[in-house]
Amino acid sequence: MSMQSSLDPQSVTDAKAGQVTVPMWLVVLLAVLGYWGMVYFDHHGGWFDARVYAPFASVSVVNELQPVSGAEAFVNRGRAVYETTCALCHGSDGQGKPGQAPPLAGSDFVLGPSGRLIRIPLHGLTGPIEVRGQVWNLAMPAMGAALSPEDLAAALTYIRQAWGNNAGPISAAEVEAVKAATAGRTLPWTAAELKSIQ
Amino acid sequence: MKVVEQRERPVETGRLPMVKGEAGQPGEKVSGGFWAVMGWVGGGAFGWVVAALLSLIASIKFHSPGFWADTPLLTYGRVRVAALQGMWWGGAVPLLFGAMLGWMGRSAPGGVRFSGLALLGAIVWHLGACLGIVGVLLGHTTGYDGWGMPNAAVWVCVAGLLLFTVSVTATFHNRGERGLQLAHGFLWAGYLWLGWVSLAAFVLLGLQPVRGVLQWLVDAWYVANAQMVAGTLLGWGILYAWLPVWTGRPLYSRYLGMMTFLGLVMLAGWTGVTPSAPVPAWLPVLATVTTVLCIVPWTAAWLNWRGSVSRCGCVLWRDAVACFAVVGCVAFFWSAVGKLGLHVPGISTVLEFTWWEPARHWAHVCGFLGLTGVAGTYAWLRSFPEREGRAVAARTQFWCLTAGLVLCVAPLAVAGIVQGLSWQDPSVPNVEVLRRTLMWLRLSTVGELLMLVGWILFCVTLSSLALKRGRACWSDGWRRITTPLQEQETAK
Question: Could you say which residues from 229 to 258 on chain B have a Cβ atom under 8 Å away from some Cβ of chain A?
Answer without folding.
Answer: 240, 244-257
